[in-house]
Amino acid sequence: MINLTSFDFASFLPEIILVAGTLALVIFELIRRKMTAASVGWGGMVLLALLVVVALSASSQQGSYLFGALVQDGVSVFFKAFFALATLLAMGIALFSFRKEGEPYLLLLSSVLGMFLLGSAGDIVTLMVAIELVSIPSYILAGMNRGDSRSAEASLKYVLYGAVSSGIMFYGFSLLYGLSGTTSIADMAAFFKGADVSATIYLTAIVLVLAGIGYKIAMVPFHFWCPDVYEGSPTAITAYLSVSSKAAGFSALFRMMDVFAAPASVGGVDARFIFSIASALTMTFGNLGALHQMNLKRLLAYSSIAHAGYLLMGFAAGTFEAYQAVLFYLVVYLFMNLGAFLVVDAAGRKLGGETTEHIKGLGKTSPALALALAVFLFSLVGLPPLAGFIGKFYLFSALVKENMWALALIGVANSVVSLVYYVRVVRDMFLADPVAEARPIPMTAGLGILTVAFLAPTILLGIWWGPLAGWVAAAMK
User: Fold this and answer.
1) Rg (CA), the chain
2) Cα separation of 420 and 201, whole Å?
């Protein structure tokens, strides 16, 4: 492995391009005050598309740089490409809503910088700073609907919960540093593998760190902010939080798993047991909470909690195949979840709301969008031959190979439960009559392109997933 202990511009190229491009857009907007917000959005999307290419082209160079604060490996390359692509697509949804404000696009780009650093963090100090760099722009973005009290409430709740979770997590990191005497994640993991540490302090530190990261991924019992923030935030921002921000938390988990799983067992409890309990509780609570939701954004919020539980199954198994399944499922989740939010956003803008009442009869007034939403929801359930089925199949297979049948059965049962509330939405779209004032949602060129961009991978990856699975496996190696 190449050890780059000095500042290496080639390794840091995606971050340099992102910072330079963001600053250029800031200056350009200040100079051209009459420039439309859409111009900033389009500029940001071009920048993110470039970053996807740059991140993937750096896959051959691996090592550590900035004195070990950052690492470059297959996982960091995957997450950089993933974050850039997910934010690019979320920015495409935001173009429908933010036509007079360029700030949301600049805040999204700022948050991506934190995600890049988070995916490459080789040190707990870097990891903590990166998490805050992701979180602070997200707090502002949640309140971007300045005239909406729900948006202000969402932003305030997000800030308060975020501040508390960060404080808890930082204290957990301080305990890990006190035990190991190092801030390097690799050195910390090596220390805990061979050291005789206090079980009480170690488990306390792990639980505190997991609480902070669990907040980012909406893991039970640190999920309380999720439904209210998702409902109150602008729908495009909600879509971004549901995928990019959540994936940022999982990238932090990837970096910390060597530390979490270092001791085989401490006090009779190991990492597999902790993640198994967290996974079962998270998916069960998320699906049960979604059963009676009438607001589509709250329904998708609880669905997002449930999917965090599914992804945690991979960390509970802790094998190469399980981590590969997690990365595969993140890509699949990107397309099907953002696609669902795209249709919900269109309904909110054109039909006056995002409840199940607003989409009644959508299959008759806007059949193309209704069919697309049905495909996204069925993929979220995990029905074949859609991409969600392949993603869940990989996760459940990893559990079965480790003889974790109980957790696998809980996951299957939860998928069956989720079918109830997803099918209820589909029923309202195709079997219920439209409300009296219902009108078609215009299928503009932009809406049509985005719909196809989400729909095609959701279908294609359900029947031809080999190339993506191969790339993910190569990233894990």
Assistant:
1) 22
2) 43
